[in-house]
Amino acid sequence: MTTLPALPLIRPKLASIARQKLPCSTKTLARAQLIKEKDDIDHYLEVNFKGLSKEEVAAYRNSYKKNICVDMLREGYHKSFTELFALMERWDVLREVAKVRSVFWLQKPLEEQPDKLDHFYHYLTRAENAERKEYFEDVYNNLYALACYFNTPEDKWVRNHFYERCFKIAQLIKIDGGKKEAEAHAHMGLLYEEDGQLLEAAEHYEAFHQLTQGRIWKDETGRFLNLLACESLLRTYRLLSDKMLKNKKYKKAIKILIKASEIAREGNDKKMEGEASYYLGLAYLAAGEHKTALQVLNTYTAVSTDLDDDLSLGRAYEAKAKVLQSQGEMTEAIKCLKKVLKIARNNFQNLDIVRASTMLGDIYNEKGYYSKASEYFEQAFDTTGELMSVPLVDEIKVHYGIAKAHQMMLTINNYIETADITSLDNLLSWKESRSNIALDPIIASYLTDESKCW
């Protein structure tokens, strides 16, 4: 949450000497200097660097990692050494496990990454020094700097280690009104959320939210921490409700989403409030409470209209159409879906076009208006070609084929029932060609009249 000013890394004596022989050094060294055998290095140093001390010789002989560790111990930073040594051991274990899982895993050993070792030395020793003086805010800042530095996909376990350290230290800080503690809860919430432990994440986000209530604290981008807490809670509650709905625990899902809606209103952010209403409406729909679902989704529609947010408005109309369809109010559902299509076309949202067209096709197909069903399924099929999604194309093909078959079935049945010469000729022609059969005039008239009602 807090952006720390960049600090010049202070390297210890042995590390500074040893860094000159690293492959990443700007200084060009003779090949003989890189020979690992002890006798060759000693001879080289004796000839070229007379007067070097034993520690300087050791700096050239030992690995950079070893020099860092020796400097920590020599300077009396025993806690930093213990922590770094434990991290290096875990680093090696995880690296070996990852190598077994993937032949393309190219993470370097820690000893080949001097910049990371420099950061460990710099911030760990500063944190230990501050801890001795009980300057806990400085301890937190240094540990958090390490967490930020290791915020990369392959190093997130290191980041999480320092998030946990920050959380423990934040409990000891009493001079900032609880801001560092709030930030630490946010970091722990993220840690658990990424790990899929949503209940634990929710607990930390709730503490984050509680600590920031009534505060005007901001993060480095100028956003209020309380708003971030609301967003984090809403996100976690939604993920929890998704699991509950999947397991058909509708009451629990609705209860947690009602809580999310209350938090959204408290955050005084209309977009966030609308999102909360949307997911609550879907939960009521899943539970079969259609009337309540429609009321909640109407709130989302009103918020989206006020914000002039077309994409959210389209999503609101689509959700309302599902509710109306479940209630059997097909005329109103069709009106909503046609609004979705209009908004989606204006905003080039092809996936929304496919979904709305498919829903319209299903409604018309169910009611027996096969010509209109085929028309919308054809629109969906044509649009899926632009999405380059083979599974979606195959799914729409099935819908389209069923509607066309139903449309053809009406005509054939009517020709069979009529049983005149013209009807027989049409049936024989169709059997020979197996192409589209000429639409019977009576059926064509029927479909045209019925489609006007929709």
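That was protein one. Protein two is written in the same sequence-then-structure order:
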Amino acid sequence: MAQQTILQKLEILADAAKYDASCASSGTAKKNSLGSSKGIGSTEGMGICHAYAPDGRCISLLKLLLTNHCIFDCHYCVNRKSSNTPRARFTPQEVVDLTLNFYRRNYIEGLFLSSGIIKTSNHTMEQMVEVARILREEHDFRGYIHLKTIPEADPQLVHQAGLYADRVSINVELPTDSGLTRLAPDKDARQIEGAMKGVKSSIVEATDARKRFKHAPRFAPAGQSTQMIVGADAATDADIVGKASRLYDGYSLRRVYYSAFSPIPDASAVLPLKRPPLIREHRLYQSDWLMRFYGYKAGEVMQATGADGNLPLDIDPKLAWALKFRGEFPLDVNRAPKDRLLRVPGLGVKAVNQILVARRYKTLRLEDVGKLTVSIAKVRPFICTPDWRPTQLTDRADLRALLAPKEEQLELFAA
């Protein structure tokens, strides 16, 4: 076989990394090379994978696999052992050179590195840690590094990864243990969560040490994240929301990412023939937002699901919950507390905060609320002001149909 060029390897391994959604770089400590005679890189500003932080910053990352060779045979993975796919492998130095060259050309601000399992989990983890070590120690790289760690690897290797990386992540892969056993027979749910527990402990210890000792080493300052595949097994949205909530509570995760299952070449017969609707992935992200920023408990989000345990696709989960619990509405925007206003469909966190500030100085009318939201029509059935009361609107049988987004056929050649 002819030896592959760097460009050929990059084409294969960057494409193979596209299935991993967990590459956002929000939450990292700010670092740059100012004041350093040899440092290179930064985690700030704008810099071929783009991730967006919650504050709107665009983060450009070189996102690739160290190798797509793998000794595991996970049914849903295009790089599984039995898959007939072109294979490639980088050396740690090649990944370092690519990262630095892309950075110097202002293409990227950091590196997202994952890998298939080659030889053993420990060998692969050692190679990934070596990439981060060379970047940090030999090149004083100050940019963002996210390492996808391997739960089967020695805990000490995972710990070393956290000392070099801004964020580490360990994929739980599937929402249920039975789904993982069926579709990823080489993986163990207890082992995965055990590795996540170890990372959490290291983060807590490092944070505590930094409070007492100024120069104590950082450990994954941007925390840890994970990813679940949606639609590869029979797990419902209620199962997924429940699993995400347990992970957030148990391991202090920064993010749980959801990735809609995508059919792969030469797929196993146990996999579905069609991918789930992408809007399902979007609804799960919305439900995740409700738990993280709107004060909803996992059980409340589950109440928004239908009889099949899945969130409705035609309306967002916040509206679905409000329609099921219409007795909670309407709310007086001039008197209701923040936690209740956050339940009003159409009012986001920013709008609610603006309402709380504005009503200290004046009595808000419907027109005032309308200036703070994209669609006052969505808000009106659930609020009241001195000049507006929804009367029977809140209880209308066809309220869902009135508020659901209208389906529209887009024109291919519209001006």
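Residues 325-403 form one domain. Keep this in mind for the problem set.
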